[in-house]
Specification:
The protein is an alpha/beta fold. It folds into two domains: 11-101 and 213-258, Rossmann fold (3-Layer(aba) Sandwich); 105-211, Rossmann fold (3-Layer(aba) Sandwich), CATH 3.40.50. The protein is 42% helix and 16% strand. It is built from eleven helices and nine strands. It has helices at 21-30, 52-68, 79-92, 105-111, 123-127, 129-136, 152-157, 164-174, 196-202, 213-226, 248-258; strands at 11-15, 36-40, 73-76, 98-99, 116-121, 144-148, 182-187, 209-211, 239-243. β7 (182-187), α9 and β8 form a beta-alpha-beta unit. α2 (52-68) crosses α3 (79-92). The longest helix has 17 residues, at 52-68. The protein starts with 10 loop residues before the first strand and ends with a helix. The relative contact order is 0.21. Keywords: Cell shape, Cell wall biogenesis/degradation, Isomerase, Peptidoglycan synthesis. GO terms for molecular function: glutamate racemase activity. Its EC number is 5.1.1.3.
Length: 260
């Protein structure tokens, strides 16, 4: 990559909707002086119930959108899209760093607590080969419980991140584990951190809730350093948000979630 004038170009973030904003928030904490362009494909959300081929096609389209915006690096802030498309993306776009995300199973294992590691994710993420390779590294020595959460992304996409509806959904999903030993809960979809507070109200207070946003932000910083394209400005960067729905309410929700 030509480093001339690259440092002040924006970093592109992509998700199937508003979920990747949870990863963007972590990146802003670590890299506040960077500029960001975020693209959410809420028109086609959720990705977690689509075919792998359809997810791949949509992901490539979104990445091209970001490249056309002149980004210097890309974060696939979607577990499903990462599982399906990250290898192919890196094979095609060889001159730009592309960072993906995956369920934070390793940090959950390293906590080394007694009980089940519950992984909440979309059906697609849990069925993909990439995740199963990751899980196979730990399943013989850890009690891993897969918890597909169809329908949760749709609630969050509509702006429902707290209240009775979310509370009822989560109780239906995790309620059966409440009286069991729980090592931790892994949020394996970038939408899910936005309902973490509601989840805390249901789970025992001692249960750690883990997501991959912070680790992804740290990896992004490492890649920028390796490529010598960190922004050297001392002022806070800008954030531009785009969405395939092209409606004001989804943009308004996106900025609200950034500050949530």
């Amino acid at each position: 990559m030509n480093n001339c004038y690259v440092y002040d170009k924006p970093i592109g973030f992509f998700d199937s909707g508003v979920g990747g904003l949870s990863v963007l928030k972590e990146s802003i904490k670590i890299l506040p002086n960077e500029n960001y362009v975020y693209y959410g494909d809420s028109k086609n959300a959720p990705y977690g119930v689509k075919s792998a081929e359809e997810v791949k096609k949509l992901t490539f389209k979104a990445v091209q959108f970001l490249i056309d915006k002149g980004v210097k690096a890309i974060v696939i802030a979607c577990n499903t899209a990462t599982s399906v498309a990250i290898v192919s993306l890196r094979n095609k776009y060889t001159d730009i760093p592309i960072v993906g995300i995956e369920p934070a199973l390793k940090p959950a294992v390293e906590i080394n607590r007694k009980g089940k590691i519950i992984i909440m994710a979309t059906p697609m993420t849990l069925s993909e080969k990439k995740f199963n390779i990751l899980m196979n590294n730990y399943k013989d020595t850890n009690d891993i419980e897969l918890l597909p959460c169809a329908g949760l992304v749709e609630l969050i996409e509509s702006g429902i991140i707290e209240g009775d509806k979310i509370n009822f959904y989560l109780k239906q999903k995790v309620g059966k584990f409440i009286n069991q030993d729980i090592s931790s809960v892994v949020l394996g979809c970038t939408h899910y951190p936005f309902i973490k507070n509601e989840l805390k109200n249901i789970l025992p207070k001692y249960v750690p809730i883990i997501d991959g946003g912070y680790g992804t932000a740290k990896q992004l910083k490492r890649k920028l350093e390796e490529n010598k394209i960190l922004n050297s400005c001392s002022t806070k960067g800008y954030i531009h948000i785009y969405n395939s729905l092209k409606k004001n309410n989804i943009i308004d929700l996106s900025y609200k979630l950034i500050n949530y």
